[in-house]
Amino acid sequence: MTGVMSGCCCGSSGPINEDNARFLLLALFIVLYLLCGAAVFSALEQPKEREAKERWAQRFEHFSQKYNLSKKDLRNFLKNYEEANVAGIRVDTIRPRWDFTGAFYFVGTVVSTIGEVYCNSKIHFLSQHAFQFESIKYNLSEPTLGKYFL
User: Fold this and answer.
1) Where is this chain's protein located in or outside the cell (predicted)?
2) Mean pLDDT of 28-56
3) pTM higher than 0.70 for the full model?
């Protein structure tokens, strides 16, 4: 199965073996799949994005004219708002994002996720190696080996 293909060469390194050819073919199919997916999503989403940008430009223009603001000042204000929003500052004053309740929820999510991965890996490890542990225990309890280790 790992024979050498005589007709396929890659540069000056000589013939390519069957496993490498399969890997390259798989990589080619994955790249082709990603390119097709990108083309589909671009075709589906790009018109909606253009419409949303046009609506935003109209709202921006209308707001700028209505409140007699320069477009430069309004853009700067909106840029500052975006930076504050990314930093976690909210416009509404219902409750802060990082009060004790929010922080407790975040910590609980992190700990439960890490704990789940850790516990599942331990259980998997133990179930895979339970027989080995039992055989070591049995061998150590024999009179000839037990006197050295117990």
Assistant:
1) Cell membrane
2) 95
3) no
